[in-house]
Design a protein that fits this description.
- The structure is a single chain.
- This protein has about 220 residues and is of the alpha+beta class.
- The protein has two helices and eight strands, in the order H-H-E-E-E-E-E-E-E-E.
- The protein has an eight-stranded antiparallel barrel.
- The radius of gyration is 22 Å and the shape is globular.
- About 35% of the residues are buried.
- The N terminus is likely disordered.
């Protein structure tokens, strides 16, 4: 009769840790990496697409303005919007259709002032804060422009903290805030240049964003009237 062989406990633990390390290493290799540089921002994708919803790591670099040479990194949240998120200011409270197909909205907590972005700082400013989670007045609004008569995308812009972020039918012009103009994009990254969207100017530069996960559910926080 042959005795059953058993693996020593210490060896089993070692093997378990080795398998865990391999799994973590494989997961790390699958995660997309993006080195943020001006060369990356200058690269151009032959056929532009819009960013995917999700949680991103956004890096902003200033190459002009009062904070030239500074960079800031932080979270960016993008989610699909709905036509019912935008409401016209009328006694009937009508719903407006989205201003672009598959519009994305979101918010970010990147220290934009740290790179000299011309953002509104007052709590009673016309522009929504870039951290706003109000779906009618989102901090971030993605606009997609298409070539006339085709489905081909000609431009993708992320508006951050601008008067154009209002989705209530109001027609504000000028003001503060910035736009991120996308030049290069893939399923999990996008990059390009940023600058003033309104009449208030200061810093400008380039940016890179890397998707780090699916869009998390966020609690809507209506903007104060």
């Amino acid at each position: 009769m042959t005795a059953a062989t058993t693996m020593p406990k210490s060896r089993a633990l070692t093997l378990g840790f080795s398998l865990l390390a391999c799994a973590v290493s494989a997961q790390a290799q699958e995660r997309p990496t993006l080195t943020c540089s001006e060369d990356v921002a200058n690269a151009r994708t032959p056929a532009l697409t819009q960013p995917n919803p999700g949680e991103y790591r956004l890096t902003m670099v200033a190459i002009r303005g009062s904070r030239r040479g500074e960079s800031r990194t932080g979270p960016l949240h993008l989610e699909k919007s709905r036509a019912v998120d935008g409401k016209r200011i009328t006694f009937r409270n009508e719903f407006l259709p989205d201003t672009a197909e598959h519009l994305l909205i979101g918010h970010t907590s990147v220290d934009l002032l740290g790179v000299g972005a011309p953002m509104a700082r007052s709590n009673d400013a016309v522009e929504p804060s870039w951290t706003s989670r109000d779906k009618t007045h989102p901090g971030v609004l993605v606009l997609v422009a298409r070539r006339y008569g085709t489905d081909s995308i000609s431009a993708v812009d992320l508006l951050i903290g601008t008067v154009s972020n209002h989705r209530d039918g109001s027609n504000w012009l000028d003001g503060a805030g910035i736009h991120l103009s996308v030049n290069e994009i893939s399923d999990s990254t996008f990059a390009g240049h940023w600058g003033a969207w309104g009449i208030i100017h200061d810093g400008s530069g380039y940016f890179c964003a890397r998707r780090v996960g699916p869009a998390a559910l966020t609690e809507e926080r209506p903007r104060r009237p």
